[in-house]
């Protein structure tokens, strides 16, 4: 790039550098400036989805993403603060989520923790944005293109390829209030506590002898009991509880 060309400089923190192209993965970024692009547009041109960017400042003064910088400006982009505040409606004590088609395992784990989590394995991008906006759900995805959609009210990039890592990332980011064992992992319905006599026909005799407390999904009728999958789910719940306690501290 010609050094005499008008340019804007960006400071990109380490947390956001993985979004940059591998060859440009460093803090200081210089972009040739045409005088018309907004800060938000330039941040996305660098590869960082705007929902991942925290507060933006120029020389320490807050700057909105819609602002046009001046040539020579140094724009500092902070990482999204953790825990990230999410606007909640009255009576709501944790964010609601919507997951894209590739995050089915993560969806079941969030439901296991009692988080209201919508997931369908056949929704295209425009439909995801519509549902996220209408139901005020945080859209969780690993698709940066989806996070660039202007109409999306609130989205977040999920870090990690293993479901354990993905869950840890979401819990660390939002530190949501958990209510384990209160939601159907299959359909997101609310579980209602039922007595043994009500579910005798649906559960094997061996299970009936071993467990006393059951939940039945109010939407799909699936019956749950704790211990159904050995200690694996208990472990997920315990780890999640610790992660949220540490993130919220
Ligand atoms: Zn259900």
From TrEMBL:
Ranges in a coiled coil: none
Name of the protein in question: Mut7-C ubiquitin/RNAse domain-containing protein
InterPro entries with a match to the protein in the record: Mut7-C_RNAse_dom, Ub_Mut7C
Domain of life where this protein originates: Bacteria
Organism: Actinomadura rudentiformis
Database matches in Pfam families: Mut7-C, Ub-Mut7C
All residue ranges annotated as the Mut7-C RNAse domain in the record: 95-236
Record domain Ubiquitin Mut7-C: where: 7-83
């Amino acid at each position: 790039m010609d050094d005499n060309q008008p340019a804007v400089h960006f400071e990109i923190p380490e947390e956001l550098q993985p979004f940059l192209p591998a060859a440009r993965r460093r803090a200081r970024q210089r972009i040739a400036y045409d005088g018309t692009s907004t800060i938000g547009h330039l941040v996305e041109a660098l590869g960082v989805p705007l929902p991942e960017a925290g507060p933006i400042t120029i020389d320490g003064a807050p700057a909105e993403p819609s602002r046009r910088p001046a040539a020579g400006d140094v724009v500092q982009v902070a990482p999204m603060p953790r825990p990230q505040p999410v606007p909640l409606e009255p009576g709501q004590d944790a964010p609601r989520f919507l997951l894209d088609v590739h995050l089915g395992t993560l969806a079941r784990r969030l439901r296991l923790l009692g988080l209201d989590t919508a997931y369908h394995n056949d929704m295209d991008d425009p439909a995801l944005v519509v549902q996220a906006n209408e139901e005020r759900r945080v859209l969780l995805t690993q698709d940066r293109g989806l996070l660039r959609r202007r109409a999306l009210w609130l989205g977040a990039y999920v870090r990690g390829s293993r479901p354990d890592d993905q869950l840890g990332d979401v819990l660390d980011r939002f530190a949501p209030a958990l209510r384990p064992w209160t939601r159907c992992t299959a359909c997101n319905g609310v579980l209602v506590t039922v007595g043994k006599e009500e579910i005798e026909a649906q559960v094997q005799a061996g299970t009936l002898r071993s467990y006393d407390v059951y939940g039945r999904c109010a939407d799909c009728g699936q019956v749950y009991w704790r211990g159904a999958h050995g200690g694996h789910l208990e472990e997920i719940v315990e780890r999640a509880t610790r992660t949220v306690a540490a993130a919220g501290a």
